[in-house]
Amino acid sequence: MLNRHGLVAGATGTGKTKTLQLIAEQLSAQGVPVFLADVKGDLSGLSEPGAANDRVRGRAAEVGQNWTATGFPAEFYALGGLGHGIPLRATVTSFGPVLLAKVLQLNRTQEQSLGLIFHYADQKGLELLDLKDLRSVVAFLTSDEGRAELKGIGGLSTATAGVILRSLTAFEAQGMATFFGEPEFDTAEFLRTAADGRGVLSVLELPAVQEKPQLFSTFLMWLLADLFHDLPEIGDADRPELVFVFDEAHLLFKDASKAFLDSITQTVRLIRSKGVGVFFVTQTPEDVPGDVLAQLGNRVQHALRAFTPDDRKALKATVKTFPDSSYDLEELLTGLGTGEAVVTVLGERGAPTPVAATRLRAPESLMGPVDGPALDRAVRESSLHARYAQAVDRESAFEKLAARPPGHPAGETKKAKEKQETAGAGDRESGEGRSVVEQVVGSGVFKSLARSVGTQIGREITRSLFGTARRRR
Ligand SMILES: Nc1ncnc2c1ncn2[C@@H]1O[C@H](COP(=O)(O)OP(=O)(O)OP(=O)(O)O)[C@@H](O)[C@H]1O
Ligand SMILES: [Mg+2]
After folding, report:
1. Which of 76, 123, 397, 100 is nearest to 225 (CA)?
2. How far is ligand 1, taken at its centre, from the CA of residue 340, in Å?
3. How far does CA 20 lie from the centroid of its chain?
4. Residue-wise pLDDT tens digits, 226-269
5. Quick one: pLDDT at residue 431?
6. N or C end of the chain: which has fewer CB within 10 A?
7. Ligand 1 neighbour 14 (Cβ under 6 A)
8. Does the beta carbon of 304 lie inside 6 Å of ligand 1?
């Protein structure tokens, strides 16, 4: 029933992360792969057998658990290669305008304008692989020669394009370029099982980007949206294809636009029939919008504090989100010990089971982090290393725009041209580059670029939920 979504909540230090560890261990043992966002770095221990200390032995004895130290098959990832893991990148085009607007913290008008810019680039065959591709397209549209194009787009003002350009420049200056580009991560990697039949645990190590919550939480959403695109409908399967865990989920919803929230709600609603269960992890259920919360039938609620009036209000609100029970939930929830929780799950008929006060098992894998060198070794030995370790920068919008002839001074073209000259013409198919330039000169900027490049790339970009792009695999 873990393809029905769930929520793990509770005050800090009450055992939420260990509960995730337990869920992941047992799913893996049953052959179900799991994706986990490791925000604090304390989930990497999943790959190592646990240490049999007094605490663990005590807990195992209390719950009648036959405890055996066990490590689980795990793959470690790191956003943009920052930290210990296989680098995980997305192309700008596949990330799409809605998610990018979220990380750029654009307002509604700017978000819509960004959508128009993506649409323009899609139509013109200007591939948006990395941030400089997008920046050069916006710079072009705000330049003297691009102004006519910008007018043609309709609904996009020079002023708004200027704001977007500035926020992109600032974003790049914060070192964000490393997260976007190729090779793009294929989320199908998350769906693997190990040779022994256990589900692979894909652990996204996030400590290195902890200070960039907007970025990593939006990236998690991209991963989910990408899975959504690619997975077939399977209806009500007897087991999940993947369980996807969003830790620190409040970051996802904070300051989110309506378009973004609608997309989350829809993705979560529809992805269940593709066999993906989603778990959100937050301190209180109040962090999760009502439309999403209503879909989270599997609930593990750890202890809540009731120190301040706000705490008490949150406590009352949390109690209301549970099915009726014979417990005094307010009292129970404030009295739970570490690694204890109030649990209700969806039964086989889809109805919630009665609320049960529960003491959780002890994890059989290592509680806490594995050290960096050990993670780095795992990464070097991974079969995915060859495919994703090295970033590549192939010809895309930036290079195409930079290849325009002189006398068309657009924003940053000069610098881009220099870069292109130093890169040398030899490493690019200059014949193809030439013809693009000629078309630009011959027919007014980009008039025929759309047709020629569009067919040359040979793919049609369709944008759906979140405006993320669908690729052919
Ligand atoms: N099921 C469990 N079995 C044994 N020990 C546990 C269990 N759950 C929690 N603990 C103990 O409680 C500590 C805190 O748990 P955990 O890190 O999961 O809390 P958390 O709710 O994720 O905290 P935070 O909000 O700070 O991330 C653990 O380091 C461990 O010692
Ligand atoms: Mg935690």
Report:
1. 100
2. 10
3. 18
4. 898 889 999 888 899 999 998 888 888 888 888 788 888 988 99
5. 34
6. C
7. yes
8. no
CA of 182 from ligand 2 middle (Å) equals 32
What one-character-per-residue DSSP string does 397-439 give?
Answer: HHHHHHTSPTT---TTHHHHHHHHHHH-GGGS-HHHHHHHHHH
pLDDT single digits (tens) 274-285:
999 999 999 999
Q: Are strands 356-359 and 6-9 parallel, antiparallel or unpaired?
A: unpaired
Residues of the chain with pLDDT under 50: 409-461, 472-473
CA 168 to ligand 2 centroid distance, Å: 32
Give the ligand with the smallest distance to the CA of 303.
1
Q: Is 391 helix (H, G, I), strand (E, B) or coil?
A: coil
User: For 394-422, how does the pLDDT look when each residue is reduced to its tens digit (9 = 90+)?
Assistant: 899 999 898 876 555 443 444 444 444 44
Which of ligand 1's atoms lies nearest the C-alpha of 20?
18
CB of 73 closer than 6 A to ligand 1?
Answer: no
Q: Identify whether 142 is part of a domain.
A: no
Q: What is the pLDDT of residues 316-361, one digit of tens each?
A: 999 998 988 889 999 999 999 999 999 999 988 888 999 999 999 9
Instruction: Say if CB 130 and CB 180 are below 8 A apart.
Output: yes
Residue closest via CA to ligand 1's atom 4 equals 362
- Yes or no: say if 278 and 35 are a contact pair by the CB < 8 Å rule: no
Question: For residue 128, is it within any domain?
Answer: no
Residues 242, 195: Cα–Cα separation, whole Å: 17
Tell whether 240 is covered by a domain.
yes
The structural domain count of the chain equals 1
pTM of the model: 0.84
- The CATH number given to whatever domain includes residue 365 is 3.40.50.300
Question: Which residues span the domain enclosing 48?
Answer: 2-89+182-381
Report the percent of the chain where pLDDT is more than 70: 85
Domain presence at residue 444:
no
- Give the type of residue at 58: G
112 lines ligand 1 (CB under 6 A): no
Is the CB of 335 within 6 Å of ligand 1? no
Pocket lining: 461 vs ligand 1, CB cutoff 6 Å: no
